[in-house]
């Protein structure tokens, strides 16, 4: 018994340590390993463009698609050497990654920042090293705008306006509109823009009432729990405005548990953002009425900026990616099949 | 629990002196505070074949926390320290379960492997995590907080590794049952998991000497060893139990959202579990413990969360309000405060007695 136990324990420990070191290796050890490869590539061919990309993590399908877009664009066949770093949601990991990129003397740094603030020092280091920094997705808040070359991402305010426009057009036969608002993580660019859009819409439309505004932190579990509570406080809810697909899933579950029907032809109209594959499937099923896209395919746009920089041109400081929206009445299976994320 | 048989101040003293008195009072106060703001807080209706109401939400949402709090109580009692890795272990368990069910896919609509196998594997891995913690604490005598810090830090990384950084979705009705409702049953399924765990553990405590052993080891480890208890093994066992229960909680949490969200499942729940143990009137330094106290503590915490939602307080501000209430409760429960309170009461009684005497004299 005792022997068996100790053998078991030894195994556990070995396993856990293997796992620990594994996860650590994933983020930090991978970079230096790649760096030698990068230098070697730079040394023998010289024409490879080395791009260091620090990604937030892989918290959602959207993020995975964003990473995939970068990896597909910056291939060796296209003449690039991509050094990818997964920061696992931690800013300190991203700062370390950028410092590594500087040491490895990459040609361009692409950063998908986890937070808006706290980038001044490390971006100054990159600037001093003469490496252009391209910010993707979320915006950063730095004292000096020249610390980054340009930004590529979504116009979240426009996304919010798109959703509001749809509500104006499609829900105009209702005199009063009781809106429940599930916000994303407070302070994130997506939350700020999409909230501004809705709030402007509520101001512009006298019949619209914002009955509740609560954060679901972009997660399904929180979205469900918050919606569950909001449904009990308000008998009359016409629209739930969810700032991403995950919260919409949670909200739909809560609405259905309360015995109401969500989506097309239901009691509560569901508006969502991001248009992930799972979100579009729910849109096709009619559970989400309107889904505004947040395009994760930043790769081609970043590449065109790098080409401009190479040609000695100055790219636009803010570059928005093209985005569309999907209506449950018009979406088809073909749209979903064509989607990689 | 409330002994209404005897009379007068004796009964009062017996009730107020009961170790569960304060925890129950706190729970009652938190619940009653709602009535002021939300008069229909206690209303439970039956609609669409399910029970519906705030109270149901509290009991339902507290399920994972109750399960965690039980494990935490054992660990606290036996080792005089806390296992801060339970939240991360929940994520690992959810990751293992979903990854086996999905067979490596990101989103599936039919099980790729039997559910039983997936759950068994998830619970086994959680027990191994517990065993790892137990080994460090019991065998190597590392402080519990430090020992479990390892998995606290690494756990979510391990979970990410298992799911390859994705959120694995199990869009199968059968999987959703464990986090929502079984058709035809009006009570949310997680409540059964919590109640089942509580009953099972209560039975184990009643029919075995485990509780006594755990308390003896917690009160004085070397004395327990001298009377013939294997203190190391008992501490070790409590960590394995704690890991197992964390795994179960992880399974329930993942079933709620039919996915393994390694970043968010059980996030900060270890702190709530420790809080539940403390609110239950248990000493965090180990020794005697009250399982029911911890369970009540867990419900108090969830009641507080649901209350704050009902009062329309933004969920990102919740921790602040929680902290304020916790400070109040913990201060009220502290021995120093209670001693002061008793002194004050004695003084007041003396004063009134003295003034009455004076009044009689004049």
TrEMBL record, chain A:
Highest taxon above the source species: Bacteria
SUPFAM superfamilies named in the record: Periplasmic binding protein-like I (SSF53822)
Signal peptide span: 1-18
A single GO cellular-component term on record: cell envelope
Tagged with keyword DNA-binding: no
Coiled coil: none
Keywords in alphabetical order: Signal
PROSITE patterns: PROKAR_LIPOPROTEIN (PS51257)
Matches recorded under Pfam families: Peripla_BP_4 (PF13407)
Molecular function GO terms recorded: carbohydrate binding
InterPro entries, per database record: Peripla_BP_I, SBP_2_dom
Presence of keyword Iron: no
Principal cellular location given in the protein's record: other
UniProt-listed Gene3D superfamilies: 3.40.50.2300
Compartments it resides in: Cell envelope
UniProt domain Periplasmic binding protein: residue ranges: 51-291
Family (UniProt): Belongs to the bacterial solute-binding protein 2 family.
Protein name stated in the entry: ABC transporter substrate-binding protein
């Amino acid at each position: 018994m005792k022997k068996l136990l100790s053998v078991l324990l030894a195994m556990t420990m070995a396993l856990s340590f293997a796992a620990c070191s594994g996860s650590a290796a994933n983020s930090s050890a991978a970079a230096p390993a790649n760096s030698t490869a990068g230098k070697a590539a730079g040394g023998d061919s010289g024409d490879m463009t080395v791009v260091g990309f620090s990604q937030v993590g892989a918290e959602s399908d959207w993020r995975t698609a964003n990473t995939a877009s970068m990896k597909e664009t910056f291939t060796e066949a296209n003449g690039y050497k991509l050094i990818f770093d997964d920061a696992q949601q931690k800013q300190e990991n991203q700062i370390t990654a950028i410092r590594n990129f500087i040491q490895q003397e990459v040609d361009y740094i692409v950063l998908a920042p986890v937070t808006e603030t706290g980038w001044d020092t490390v971006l100054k280091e990159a600037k001093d090293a003469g490496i252009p920094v391209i910010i993707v997705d979320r915006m950063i808040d730095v004292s000096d705008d020249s610390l980054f070359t340009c930004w590529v991402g979504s116009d979240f305010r426009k996304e919010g306006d798109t959703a509001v426009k749809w509500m104006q057009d499609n829900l105009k036969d209702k005199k009063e509109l009781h809106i429940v608002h599930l916000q994303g993580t407070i302070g994130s660019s997506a939350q700020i823009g999409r909230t501004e859009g809705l709030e402007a819409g509520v101001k512009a439309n006298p019949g619209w009432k914002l009955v509740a505004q609560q954060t679901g932190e972009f997660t399904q579990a929180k979205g469900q729990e918050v919606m569950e509570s909001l449904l009990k406080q308000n008998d009359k809810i016409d629209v739930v405005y969810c700032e991403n697909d995950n919260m919409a899933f949670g909200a739909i579950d809560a609405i259905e548990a309360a015995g109401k029907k969500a989506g097309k032809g239901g009691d509560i109209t569901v508006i969502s953002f991001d248009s992930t594959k799972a979100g579009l499937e729910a849109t096709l099923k009619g559970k989400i009425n309107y889904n505004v896209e947040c395009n994760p395919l930043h790769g081609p746009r970043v590449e065109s900026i790098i080409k401009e920089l190479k040609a000695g041109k100055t790219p636009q400081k803010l570059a928005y990616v093209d985005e569309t929206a999907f209506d449950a009445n018009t979406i088809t299976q073909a749209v979903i099949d064509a989607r990689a994320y | 629990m409330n002994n209404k048989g005897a009379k007068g101040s004796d009964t009062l003293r017996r009730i107020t002196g009961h170790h569960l008195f304060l925890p129950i009072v706190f729970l009652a106060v938190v619940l009653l505070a709602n009535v002021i703001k939300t008069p229909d807080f206690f209303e439970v209706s039956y609609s669409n074949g399910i029970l519906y109401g705030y109270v149901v939400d509290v009991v339902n949402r507290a399920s994972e926390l109750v399960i965690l709090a039980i494990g935490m109580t054992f660990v606290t009692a036996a080792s005089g320290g806390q296992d801060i890795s339970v939240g991360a272990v929940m994520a690992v368990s959810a990751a293992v379960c979903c990854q086996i069910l999905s067979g490596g896919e990101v989103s599936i609509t039919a099980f790729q492997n039997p559910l039983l196998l997936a759950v068994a594997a998830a619970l086994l891995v959680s027990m191994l995590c517990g065993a790892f913690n137990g080994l460090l604490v019991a065998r190597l005598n590392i402080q519990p907080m430090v020992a479990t810090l390892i998995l606290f830090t690494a756990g979510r990384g391990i979970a990410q590794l298992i799911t390859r950084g994705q959120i694995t979705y199990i869009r199968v009705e059968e999987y959703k049952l464990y986090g929502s409702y079984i058709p035809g049953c009006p009570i949310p399924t997680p409540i059964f998991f919590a109640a089942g765990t509580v009953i099972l553990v209560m039975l184990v405590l009643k029919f075995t000497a485990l509780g006594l052993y755990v308390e003896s080891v917690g009160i004085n480890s070397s004395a327990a060893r001298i009377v013939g208890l294997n203190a190391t093994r008992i501490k070790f066992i409590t960590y394995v139990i704690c890991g197992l229960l964390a795994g179960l909680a992880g399974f329930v949490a993942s079933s709620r959202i039919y996915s393994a969200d390694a970043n968010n499942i059980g996030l900060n729940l270890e702190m709530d579990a420790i809080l539940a143990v403390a609110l239950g009137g248990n000493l965090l330094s180990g020794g005697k413990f009250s399982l029911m106290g911890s369970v009540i503590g867990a419900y108090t915490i969830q009641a507080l969360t649901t209350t704050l939602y009902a009062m329309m307080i933004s969920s990102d501000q919740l921790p602040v309000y929680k902290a304020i209430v916790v400070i109040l409760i913990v201060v009220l429960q502290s021995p120093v405060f209670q001693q002061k309170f008793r002194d004050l009461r004695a003084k007041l009684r003396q004063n009134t007695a003295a003034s009455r005497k004076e009044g009689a004299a004049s």
